[in-house]
Amino acid sequence: MIERSKVSLAIIKYLALDEAGRMLDMGFEPQIRKIVEHLDMPPCGPRQTMLFSATFPTEIQWMTSDFLHNYIFLPVERRVYT
Length: 82
Fold this sequence. Notes:
Layout: E1 14-18, H1 20-25, H2 29-38, E2 48-52, H3 58-64
Parallel strand pairs: 1-2
């Protein structure tokens, strides 16, 4: 739809990708990179980008920093109290 110019991303202010780490781990980096960098989506800065994932291996974290402005990694852990 985007490539056929049926949908525009020109006024996107917030981009949230759930399970982004998994998508990148499965090889979807070229598709994500194309949407974020090459189509009519605003660049990092004017656009707030948030990537969420249950797992974020270190090599995937380095890759995601390409899509983000002022990259911050915030791990959330579940603690079990006995």
